[in-house]
Every structure is written in structure tokens, then in C-alpha cells.
User: Which sequence fits this backbone?
């Protein structure tokens, strides 16, 4: 229900940011549903990691994109927190450093990819280079067009190499963003999260919505589809992202590898020590 159909036009004014497609419809049920996923998610993660020790190259990459305050960090805290942190690789992408600017735009992302058996999480990603770059006109239209194609090739290569890519756009409402930004200003303990630049970015809301529509439309592929997750209700956002990860991990169906040794012989030897 949340997947962006391949090749279809995207209109972000259509999905309700406060909606709860496929339920639950209330907070208590949503929190309970998320909690019930924890054991199964942890078990599948453990199997995925174990399988990598026997040469299985599969891994999962969760890409989180969204406007400021849409809940990328909150998703990491409440959903990825259900996993064993030793098997996760979390990377947050800010403005490119001088070193990163000296390389092709996919270079810094390539260096942050999860290893076999890991679950990788990108808080923002390579899509910043077709979102911010478009809104702020940092590159020409011809460069942007080329970048969409480069991203699609890059993600297909990842999928061919065993990476399951789950790309999530956290769809936040305009009025909800105002409320969340004001709450940061009103709470001294949250002011560190606020920046005057947030106001400038908010002023460019229509341009960012259009940039996201284009990115979702041009880069939702069979190998790496986009999912639009309503983000006004934090409990629904967490449940939806957790469910997406659970479904993809269940589809992978990782299993524990058998031991490559004689179990009974080792048992006898161990007892004799």
C-alpha cells in the first residue's frame, strides 16, 4: 500500500501525512504492534548475520529521507533500536565535506554501505544530491538528469550484489512541521536541534515537495522501490517502517549455517578436557 509504483507520476498532495494506511488506527494499538515485532526482527537479524559467516553476501539497507522534523532520527531510535546494535551500521549524511566534494557524489555513500550480514541505515543519503542540489540550484539540469540515472544504476548493482534496499520517504505535513519546530524553540532541552536554517528550508517547502516527487518518480525501480510513509503520527511511522523491514527480512528468510565440523567428535573431545 505504501510502495511507489514504478514509472507512475507522484503527487505528494494526495497521500495524507496523518493517515494510517493498513492500520492500526490508534496509538496504543500501534505501539503494541511495534513491540510485538521486536523478537521476530531480532531473530531474523541474528540469522542474517550468522549466514554471512558462511559466505552469504546478503544485507539490508534502509534509506530514510524526509523534510526536517519528519522523524529520521526518531525512526532510528525506536525501530532500529529493536535490533542488536552490533549488527547495524548507521550513517547520517550532512553537507559534503571538502574531501567528499573532490569525489563523485556517490563516493561517500559507497564507503558507508553495510557489510554482508549487516543492516545499514542511512539518515539522509545520496538523494540529497538530487534534492538539495535541485532546490538550491547547485548543479545544472543536465547534471541532475544524469544523477537520477546514476542512482538507478548504482542501486541495481547493489541489489545484484545481495543488498536489499528499503527506501522510505517520511511524508510530513506542512502544519505538523511548524508544530514540531515550535516545540523545539519552546523546550530549552530541544533547542540544540533547531537551526535558523530550518526556517529558510521551510520557506522552500513547495520546491522541496516537487524535488521529492521527481526523485520518487524517477528512482522507484523494481530493484529499489520507494515507500511513502505518513509521518505526522510518530507511532504509525515507527510501526510502518518496522513492518517494512520485517517483510523484507522474512522474504530473505536467512538461516543459520550448519557447522563445518563433526559435532559428535567435538562433543567427545570437549567432555574429555
Assistant:
Amino acid at each position: 500500500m505504501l510502495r511507489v509504483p514504478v514509472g507512475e507520476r507522484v503527487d505528494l498532495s494526495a497521500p495524507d501525512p496523518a493517515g494510517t494506511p493498513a492500520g492500526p488506527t490508534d496509538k496504543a494499538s500501534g505501539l503494541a504492534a511495534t513491540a510485538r515485532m521486536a523478537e521476530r526482527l531480532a531473530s531474523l537479524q541474528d540469522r542474517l548475520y550468522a549466514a554471512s559467516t558462511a559466505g552469504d553476501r546478503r544485507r539490508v539497507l534502509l534509506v530514510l529521507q524526509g523534510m526536517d522534523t519528519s522523524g529520521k532520527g526518531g525512526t532510528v531510535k525506536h525501530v532500529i533500536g529493536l535490533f542488536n546494535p552490533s549488527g547495524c551500521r548507521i550513517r547520517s549524511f550532512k553537507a559534503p565535506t571538502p574531501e567528499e566534494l573532490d569525489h563523485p557524489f556517490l563516493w561517500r555513500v559507497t564507503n558507508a554501505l553495510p557489510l554482508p550480514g549487516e543492516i545499514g541505515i542511512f539518515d539522509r543519503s545520496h538523494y540529497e544530491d538530487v534534492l538539495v542540489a535541485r532546490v538550491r540550484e547547485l548543479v545544472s539540469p543536465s547534471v541532475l538528469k544524469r544523477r537520477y540515472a546514476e542512482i538507478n544504476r548504482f542501486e541495481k548493482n547493489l541489489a545484484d550484489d545481495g543488498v536489499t534496499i528499503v527506501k522510505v520517504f517520511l511524508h510530513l505535513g506542512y502544519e505538523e512541521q511548524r508544530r514540531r519546530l515550535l516545540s523545539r524553540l519552546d523546550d530549552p532541552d530541544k533547542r540544540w536541534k533547531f537551526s535558523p536554517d530550518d526556517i529558510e528550508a521551510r520557506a522552500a517547502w513547495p520546491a522541496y515537495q516537487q524535488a521529492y516527487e521527481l526523485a520518487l518518480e524517477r528512482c522507484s525501480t523494481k530493484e529499489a522501490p520507494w515507500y511513502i510513509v505518513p509521518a505526522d503520527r510518530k507511532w504509525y511511522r515507527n510501526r510502518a517502517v518496522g513492518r517494512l523491514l520485517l517483510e523484507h527480512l522474512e522474504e530473505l528468510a536467512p538461516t543459520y549455517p550448519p557447522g563445518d565440523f563433526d559435532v559428535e567428535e567435538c562433543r567427545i573431545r570437549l567432555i574429555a578436557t
